[in-house]
Amino acid sequence: MNVEEEVGKLKEEIQRLGQQQPDGSYKVTFGVLFNDDRCANIFEALVGTLRAAKKRKIVTYDGELLLQGVHDNVEITLLPPPAVAVA
Fold first, then answer.
1. Pairing mode, if any, of strands 26-29 and 59-60?
2. I want to staple 5 with a disulfide (CB 3.0 to 4.6 A). Which of 1, 54, 55, 67 is the partner?
């Protein structure tokens, strides 16, 4: 699986596990993602996929590197897709 595929899967999993916000974003904690069995089977390197998604401005979270246990309560936000301008 390439990075783009993994980021796409990450978006699906955050939507599945997270709570939708009024602005259309989804929020989930790192601990919930990391400890989910389905995520564990999909992502070989969840932290690397999160960093790639953050670099592409698809998700946002505090800090650079997330570690199990230490950062379980860090909130990850899947940003809403950009609004398409109607011409």
1. unpaired
2. 1
Helix (H) or strand (E) holding 59: strand 59-60
DSSP state of 77: E
Percentage of residues in the chain with pLDDT exceeding 90?
78
Contact 28, 36 (CB under 8 A): no
Q: Considering only CA atoms, give the Rg of the chain.
A: 13
Given a cut of 80, whether residue 41 has pLDDT beyond it is yes
- Which helix H or strand E contains 19, and what residues bound it? strand 19-20
CB 72 within 8 A of CB 30: yes
Q: What is the separation, in whole angstroms, between the first and last Cα of the chain?
A: 37
pTM: 0.89
What DSSP string describes 20-54? E-TTS-EEEEHHHHHH-HHHHHH-S-HHHHHHHHH
